[in-house]
Amino acid sequence: MFGSGKHYSMEEQQGRRNVNGERELEGGQPSRNSGQTGHEPEDLKKAEESTQSQSQWRRITKVPQLLRGTQDFKKLYEPRVISIGPYHHGKPHLHPVQMIKPLCARNFLADSNQEIEALYTKIESNIEAVRKCYNKRPTIKYDNEALAWMMLLDGCSLLQFIRRKDLRKFLREHHINFVMQDLFLLENQLPFGVLKLIFEGAKFNDGLTMEEMIKKFVTDNGRLEESTLEIHLEEASHILGLLRSALLGQSQPEQERPPDKKGKSSASQGICGRFCSPCKKGKQRGIRQSFRNIKELKAAGIHLQSSRTRFLTDISFNSYFFRGYLNLPPIIVDDFTKSRFLNIVAYEMCPDAPHDYTVTSYICFLYELIDHAEDVKELRSKHILRNCLGSDEDVAHIFNDIANDVVSTGVYGHVKASIQEHYDRKVSTWIAEVRHIHFRSPWTVTAFIAAVLILFLTGVQAYYSLPGN
């Protein structure tokens, strides 16, 4: 075993066991060179002492049983081309990409100027912490050596995928796209503590740190501006958890559009610490919600506006008596939207996850606004939603499907209550209907003005035609 004080040549490394406990084929174990000595450097000893005393890493659980009966479960929650970690390791359909992991790992080690033996020693010294991160049954079949090699190989490969360097040497373009989807599955995660052990000593010639690369990778996949987000890697649990943090942001900016001090503003607030009720149209705990979609809100004089950021927490409502403005963060809907949202929902249902269920609440909120393609069209026209799927009906189906097995919480309850209050004003609805019927185009406006003018002139003429005038 590496780190035992012995010298291992490339040939000896090739004869060692792989993470399946089998003899490794030639080139199977990644190594930067064959001249590595087995003597532990002083800084490695310090790193071991530091990692051994660190706090317990967060658990990575499997998808909760409540969601395991979901239609298309395998398509939404299980990897298609690459396994990361022990839950799906060794499945036959993942074997082709499994074979290129050593090549990716070798490239990462070479680019980061690190030696495989030192990294293996650090991971092996933390192997009990690694085991506690996963369910016991999937890891019990791997001894410490095999599990440590799995973490090392998967961790180096994952970081190489994050760097997106030289991937086309190993994978075709369509495989790369599916790899990027697989990296954000709940059951396909590595503890961030393992990744930190691997990249904390990395020295890249291009000048970028691994933290910067991870931040760019997560913000790109969250469709966020990198400069608007501060990710605290030391608090991260895994890559999916980082994506969730990126989507939510670190603050909830106030929305003040239109800039009118007389308007009443309702920002998203009121965290619900536990699940409240099934996500159904027109139902929210403590709120008598009668609006069902965007079309009905528009009829009541409530208009959509794009929020100033893409953070899912950036939702607010402003009421101006006759008009209301619902601010929603811009979102891009593509082929991976459903899977990523549902895996974040599954993560929020886990015991060790943050307890605010904000992404779950956001999905329910959109579900309550979107009934038909017309609602999606309105979101597109206001530059709130970008449709990369095809038809607007497809997008409507996406959010209706996502919300089927999701529960509603009180995160946006205050916003919904303010919308309902405005919606209940009959005068607002009446004025909105008048504006919609008589002022929906320049021609109807002209006709209305002409009709009023004719009535006025007719009245004047009748007045002066009366006797005595």
Could you characterize the architecture of this molecule?
- With 469 residues, the protein is of the alpha/beta class.
- The protein has 3 domains: 10-248, no CATH class; 264-427, no CATH class; 440-469.
- It contains 22 helices and 10 strands.
- It has helices at residues 10-14, 42-52, 65-68, 73-77, 95-98, 101-112, 116-124, 127-132, 136-139, 144-163, 173-182, 192-199, 210-221, 239-248, 294-299, 337-348, 358-369, 373-381, 392-402, 413-423, 426-438, 442-464, and strands spanning 264-267, 277-278, 283-284, 287-288, 302-306, 316-320, 323-328, 331-333, 385-387, 407-408.
- The strands form 4 sheets. The protein has a 4-stranded mixed beta sheet. It has a two-stranded antiparallel ribbon with strand order 2-10.
- A hairpin with a 2-residue loop joins β6 and β7 (323-328).
- The longest helix has 23 residues, at 442-464.
- The radius of gyration is 29 Å and the shape is elongated.
- The model is unreliable at 1-40, 49-54, 251-262 and 268-276 (pLDDT under 50).
Q: How many runs of DSSP E, i.e. beta strands?
A: 10
**Overall number of domains:** 3
Strand order of the largest sheet: 1-6-7-5
- Could you say which overall geometry the principal axes of the C-alpha atoms support? elongated
The fraction of residues assigned to DSSP E strands is: 5-15%
Mean pLDDT: 79
User: What is the tally of helical segments?
Assistant: 22
- Oligomeric status: single chain
Q: Radius of gyration from the CA trace?
A: 29 Å
**Given the helix and strand composition, which structural class is it?**
alpha/beta
**Can you tell me the residue ranges where pLDDT is under 50 for at least 5 consecutive residues?**
1-40, 49-54, 251-262, 268-276
What gap, in angstroms, lies between the N and C termini?
114 Å
Q: Can you give the helix content as a percent range?
A: 40-55%
Q: Biggest β-sheet, characterized? A: 4 strands, mixed
